[in-house]
Structure prediction request, 646 residues.
Amino acid sequence: MKAAYRILFLLICIGLILQCSSFGQIALLPLPQNMELRAGYFTIANTNPDKDNRFTFSIVDNIEGIHLNPEEGYSIDITPDAIRIEATTEIGLFRAKTTLAQLIDGADDNGQIPCCKIVDFPAFQIRGFMHDVGRYFIPIEELEKEIAILSRFKINIFHWHLTEDVAWRLASDITPYLTDSSITTRNTGFYTKEEVRQFVQYCKTHHITVVPEIDMPGHSAAFTRVTGFSMQSPEGKKLVKELLWEACELFDTPYFHIGTDEVKITDPTFATEMAEIVRQAGKEPIGWLPGADLGQPSIKQLWIGTVNPPAGAKTIDSRFLYLNHFDPFADLFGVFNSRICGSDSGNDHLTGGICCVWNDRIPASVEDILLSNTFYTVMLAFAERSWRGGGHDIRVRGVNLPQPDNVDYKLFTDFEKRMLISRNRYLPDEPFPYLKQTDVHWRVIDPFPNRGDLSLTFPPEQKIRKKYRHKRKVFTSNPATGATVYLRHTWGGMVPGLFADPRPDHTAYAYTYVYAPDAMQVGLWAGFHVFGRSEKDATPPNGEWDHKGSRIWINEELINPPIWANAGFQPENLETPYFDENWWVRKPIPITLHKGWNKILLKMPVGNFTSPQTRLTKWMFSALIVTPDGKSVPPGLIYSPERKKR
Prediction:
């Protein structure tokens, strides 16, 4: 039955996509659950629906066709003469208005939008994002901007991680010195009580719920520096209870997160007593899993990929949703294709998911947080998945793009088109390191054993073939799609890569041919390692792409790596930001394409999967031809390992 349901779900999705393709520049994101295209058009006379009496907004008792989370559901009925919007709550009307705004913004040159009937609702109750402001302060103005943008795409939770070892960012009348700059070991800044109250109200106007977090009893060195006590000591525990009461009274929100992760619990009643304070304050406690038991009722937020939702417990899924490990391409597909809480849709226990941005390694700036973590690209993909539901277990499907004959490829291709339209329309000035990648095709040759010598050369460097015989073994090639391909994923055995059984001490090659309609000067986005924003990875030495000896040839010419701003740097701690290590934060490499077919060959040696330079050695590659400024893709390019003009 599950297989039949999935097939039906996919057929419905494809049918919806085919309907949406008739909408032209109307790029709805997230895609509605149900949409029926009808004959005729409605002509926009005023882009403000409140000033056009042909628009009606109504609160009704129920809407036929909504069977999940009806409080956020809505319907939009567009005829040539009128647009009727219905919902059962004000929240539902707000969600409807975000869809209506996208419809209006996508009207044709004559101000026309197609007639249709939309019945829509979210698959999951919780669709959120988290900022670690404990490790790096983010001003309220920036947070409000993100709230305004993401509410357009029906995100409804902001998880505010307010305290950490390096700083305590929440003002307190009980212990004012907690936020003193002399206690903070990174960029100074904290939120006053009035700022918190105003921000929570601002979020409410966008129907986004704030989930504050005071992490305890771990991640609390800032608390100890001020008080002289650990949180689990008798004196520290008494003070934490007072601070928690104070914070619960400050936040007019239904939840409060108390952390409890990555710490040895020496006081067995600490977590349950703190959770009980949250309940007495009229809120629902949330804690990380793995983490301490909070008793019931409480919510578990999953953060390790080996943990599954516990039976009968309310769950938020953040597994494989840590943006600080992501690249902009393959991992974006991984989020788009993910399966939240291991379920097609939510229920009273499987509540949804939250994407997390952790600033373990100090960022260069607030903008760097958005750029390095590909924040908006991932959040748009997550907005679609958490609203629509469905998807696949990343531990089975991995993050590499499927081949063009695959249903999931077609779904992602449509999403990519809508996402890029949304970027141009709503985020033109925001960091958004993504360009079209679904037309990029490769062949990746089976890896040759290098016996630990990463400098060895192999037959693909002499001639490209689909099959090789080398030292009495046959090496074939495998198709791959996308601007990033993981041969072995960041999380190793948990998430599959292109190779079913990747072994250390091997060298792989990837190739394609790029057809250019004319000779042109272009740029190359390229790299062989994703520098995780929670790592102490060493910068490559000058003259090398990485620490493994990776190489790129274009038309037989060896392409030199960048001159690194911080070449060969091995950090002793996490207090030095990255500069140009990740390929999407630096200028593209200038290259020349000839008219006609251009050969691209990549060499990817690997030794052990952990090394003194990188804790998580990535076996992967990224490559995409872009304009010299990196802002778009040159027109007319065709990627084909077989040199076929499709």
User: Anything to note?
Assistant: The longest helix spans residues 407-426. The mean pLDDT is 95. The longest strand covers residues 506-516.
